Amino acid sequence: AEPLSSCMVDQQGFESLYRMRRSTFSYICSLVRIPFFEDMMTRGHTFVDGKVMSLQDGVAIALSVLNSGEPSQIVGSSLSVSESTVSVITQRFVEAMWERAFYHICWADAEMEKIKRMFDKIHGLPNCCGVVHTTHITFGSQNHEPGDEQNDDKLMLVIDPDMKFTGTHFGSQNQLSVLHDSSLFKSCQEGTMLNGSKLMLSDGLEVGEYIIGDAGYPLLPWLLTPYSMEDKDLLSADVPPYQAEFNRRHSSASTLTLAALARLKDNWKILDRAVSSFPVMETIDVCCILHNIVIDMEEIEEEDVVGMEEENHIEQVRQVADEDAVRVRDILSQHLTGSGVHTMVAEEEEADVAAVASGSEDGNKEHDARQRQKADRGKEKVHDS
Fold this sequence. Notes:
This protein is α/β, with parallel strands linked by helices. The chain has three domains: 4-100, no CATH class; 104-339, no CATH class; 344-379, no CATH class. It is built from 13 helices and seven strands. The protein has a five-stranded mixed sheet, sandwiched between helices. Strands 4-5 form a two-stranded antiparallel sheet. A hairpin with a 5-residue loop joins strand 2 (153-159) and strand 3.
């Protein structure tokens, strides 16, 4: 009998069912072949009619559970597999992926120069290494009630310009506690991360590597948050231009988190289900690993995420920032304003305004074309100059 993954003959049907191309599916099978396949052969998993499952069948079943978020009983019924078999196979797949493919979400020092160039060119943030964001996660949360996020656990993620995750940390406390408990915080405080090449400015000052985060995070030399505007108008004379410009670029880059999280939760719906029969941290990590693999392996046509928002849910903290952190942010933001460098985002916005103001048919066509191109902005590859 043909494996489940061969049931959808046309490419579009396959991608709709498994949320990936066949080549990506085959790569995932190769990752788990040894530990996963050997375990399946030992257990002798079969369909309800007695037919023996292949490796591809097992992977297809596990992906169906993670994709749909449906209980094992429902997935099993639709695929002619017993509920217990679906549960065992999915758990073994998660364990195998976590063991064999974890490097897909590891912090990659070798990629950092490329990541920094992309943040600089696209968002105008030189030496930036990522965006950190904490979101509520339903999966594995105890006593979860629909619409009640108080009991949800927290997932902290670091996102690169390609919308891939370069770090994850799972916790059950508030945003600040999750940060402090993470290996990211400990390593950066000790100087073993974000310790690469520094940005040398014309006046002899320098800015080290950093990531950015929202106002719910503390301002640190390696974690730059936006300036507090306290309901001020960014165009007000009371707001220094360098602060307004820094906040604009900070906000532009931070939108990556919304798009990345929307894709993650849409493709791996198990994360929005209060399911606890699978290992929680490993399952969350594997969904992030699969998210990265799909981006790495395929040219994805970005969906229009205009108007898609995730409520921030941040607990505003009174920032007691050390002098070094304040100095780093001020030096960087004043450099951005003084350099006069236009980012891709700013150039597109200016062109849009000019096109709409002209009111001409050609101008409107140019505006529409640029709107379609914005979906590809985060995927632009920046080559060595």
